[in-house]
Write a structure and sequence with these properties.
With about 500 residues, this protein is an alpha/beta fold. Helix content is about 35%, strand content about 20%. Strands 11-14-17-10-18 form a five-stranded parallel β-sheet. Strands 1-2-4-3 form a four-stranded mixed β-sheet. The protein has a three-stranded parallel β-sheet with strand order 5-8-9.
Amino acid sequence: MLGSAVGAVLDGIGASVVTVEADVGRGLPQFHIVGLPDSAVNESKLRIRSAIRNSGLEFPNNRITVNLSPASVRKRGAGLDLAIAVAILRAAGVLPASEQAIGFAAELSLSGALAPVPEAVNLAIGLAAAGVHSVAVAAPQIGSCVPIPSLTWHTYAHLRDRIQDLRNHGHLRQPYSPPPILTAQADVDLDEVMGLDEVKRALALAAAGHHHLVLVGPPGCGKTMLAERLHTLLPDLTPDEALEVHAIHQAAGSPRPPTLRPPMRMPHHTIGQAGLIGGGTPPAPGEVTLAHHGVLVLDEVLEFRRAALDALREPLVQREVRLTRGGRSVTYPASFLLAGTLNPCPCGQSGFGTCNCPEAVILRYWSHLSGPLLDRIDMVVPVRPARDRVYDEVSRRVTSAELRAAVARTRTALADRTRGVQGEPHPRDFAAAALSRLHLAATRLPLSRRGALAVARLARTLSVMEGKDSVQPTHVDEAIAFRSPGLPVHR
């Protein structure tokens, strides 16, 4: 007899739906699994045999062949245990065939208890996309269940509980309704940074227009504190975006509670290219993908390996990463906001104080950041040392929530202004004098085609943030100043 069930396996950060077919026929007692199973799937034979027996049932003493379809996809992990057990019991006539589209994503212990699988959310998303509207998972998985459109969760503690429901003409117990994804309270806030109002305004500008930036200043001026708080200025994610981010982190083995707040990743400068961009066999997502819909902070960016930094060029523009490893090609999302921090020279005082570094040493120091990569960064923001600031302890400090509201308003206005416009900012966005100033800068300043476009986009964001109907010459001048801030920047 034949029996079937539906499961899923992790494929990159997504999931591949697997149809489990079991044949229980005459012959010597044997148990084979075909369809490119890995060692974890092959070892499930021993777990399934013991789990069925310890659930009060007899394991079929026949020739058992289990096929995992599609056969061309490598099956990894223990998430197919429950689906294989159900398919075998259906083939043996112990359980009736079900016409309901039910997916199974759970590991079996020897006692028959269901154990959670770390990638359950990814598997459930893949099953829902394939038209499966119910998924059965282990009861301990209840804490990681999140709302998924058109999908209901059903939790079971033991295989015998699932068998009892299936024997009841496929009846499913009351589905579990996970709570909605909520906004988590950030543990940092921009009001913790004293002064630096002009830098905070630049951070809000970057967050509103998705402009990549680097903060340049001497040691101890607050660059890292500011960069660490940039993500607090981003508006909340939509439920779909939050679900996507949560699934990415779960697939990468980087636990992150489901939340509407954008992620912030801050890798150490010793990270390699594969860790930053992604790679390995099978391909795994890197930090740029874990920062999807959020902020990637590269503290002391000039200390990173140049090969790793140069690998950022394509993701910064295309907002995705394409990897080919072992004959497999995968595409990972990577729509992040880059925030780098760096000292202007090895001693950290060039442009801010007394610098004793020879020009050749400064040039070699900046050579870690290639011209093509720097050309993709819209804003270079100087951060002045504490001795150049005047603090007013009585004045009210601006909070992240206030700036986040301004960023949200600017994003909405930008979306309205750019609706139906593809590529470069439209000339209708510019006053005549501003357009003339922009053309003059493009011809007389050392701006690449990409740099001139970045200036235009930055000027447009500035005008929208200030509530202007069109870009004025002052906006163009300020945008140019962000590209050439008077520091030892070598584009």
